[in-house]
Amino acid sequence: MNNKYKIVRREYFNEFGEINEDSIYYIIKKATRFLGLIPYWSTITHTELGWGDCYQVPTQFKTLEDAQKFIEETPCKNVRVDGWRSTDVRTIECPCIKLEITFENDGNSIM
Q1: Cα 46 to the center of its chain, rounded Å
Q2: By the 8 A CB rule, do 66 and 60 touch?
Q3: What is the DSSP string of 38-101?
C-alpha cells in the first residue's frame, strides 16, 4: 500500500482581512487509519524543546517546493525523522573474578 501525503497552505489574515506574506507557510498531512478502520489526515509534526518542556508542532515549510522535496526525500525513502536511534558501538567484557569465601567456624571454603 502506498502512503498518501497532501500539502496544505496556511495563511494568517490580520484584523483588516489582509494576508501578510510572511505568515504564509505549508504543512504536510499523511493519510492514516485509526484502529486500521477509520481514515483521517494526520499532520506531520516534530518535537521542539522550550522552557523545560517538549511539545509537538507542525513541520512548516516556506515554499511548496520545499514541502514537496521533503516528502520525496524523507518519508518516500523511509528516512527516519524526529526520533531516536540507539546503536551499540562497543561491548566490553570484564574478566571473571574468582571469589573464595572461608568460614571461620568449620574451615570449609566455597568457590
Answers
A1: 6
A2: no
A3: EEEEEE-EEEEEETTEEEEEE--BSSHHHHHHHHHHTGGGT---SS----------PPP----E
Q: Give the pTM.
A: 0.57
pLDDT in tens, 66-82: 888 888 877 666 666 65
Give the pLDDT score at 75. 66
Question: Contacts from 60-64 at CB under 8 Å and sequence distance 24+?
Answer: 60/25, 60/26, 60/27, 61/25, 61/26, 61/27, 61/28, 62/25, 62/26, 63/26, 64/7, 64/9, 64/26
Grid cell digits, residue 49: 524543546
